[in-house]
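Model it.
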Amino acid sequence: MPIYKDEITNKYYFSTRYKDVYGNNKRKVKRGFRTKREAKAAEASFLTEIETGYSDSNTFDYIFNHYLDNTDLREKTRRRKENEYKLHIKERFGHIKMNQIKQNQCQEFRSYLMKNMPSPNSARTIWSGFKVVINHAKKHFGLRIDPTISITPIPRVKPKPKYMLREEFEDKIDNIDNQDYRELLKLMFYTGLRVGEAMALTWNDYNKYKKELSISKTMDVTNRKIYNRAKTESSEDIVPLPIFINDILIERYNLMSNNYKYFDDNYFIFGGMEPKHYSHLHKKYKQVFPNYDIHTLRHSYASYLANNGVDIFVLQSLMRHSQITETMQTYSHLYTQKKHDAIRIFDNI
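Modeled.
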């Protein structure tokens, strides 16, 4: 097919006809190539993709982008995967046809990650992203041989979570000089909410009579975009409130409903018509709690409950974990006293 030159931009483009997956006649036009050769190569690549369709002879780059376009990813997750791909994967595998990727190439990539990433968990995240594309090719493109199948997975190193005592939190929280942030952080400490969940709350999510919050959405703290779904399926649940936290919310509701002329229950509990900015909250938090990240509040909530004898299955429900193993792996070390209490049965003879 001929290649054309745009007389306005002095760049080349191709225009070609093809049939889509439904057999309909279509035209593809792509512009902006610096040379005629680049335009011709791009056209040939496009026609090859159309011809091979869902075949494992497509390149890793093609299948990676197909995975992005056909998977329901959060915007934040998509950005992370795109960045990891550009930095670590594309140069090594992007141009290779999926069915031509070799085991030794994958082994070398694993070694590169283990040597160059700041932590084993960072290496594991990128390796998992690489494996996801392999699995996508197996599921949708007929890839028969997984080149990573015999390679040792990168193990997850689960750090012991940091937490602060309730006494320390209460001793310092009043040093937060903004009432909205002070009350938001109190809510997080005494409910175990993630920061995105707390900042996404509207008054529609609150029931003062039942003393509970309904968690059904979260906020991407990098761009303040609200997603109408929780972090995970198990995260969508009802969260009970201590009486004193419920009293704080009742007072906030009365104050906001009197101060905002057009107030309704769609207003954000910590904000108004718009949610607060996470960057400002984080700055205020680190001024008072420099040794803890903000997720420590969630761990502190769980730790306080565990240390005060709350059953681990109840803790799983309160933390909204999908599996009891997640709760046990993170907090079972706090149940040492319960082990001692259990073994005392032998002393009661």
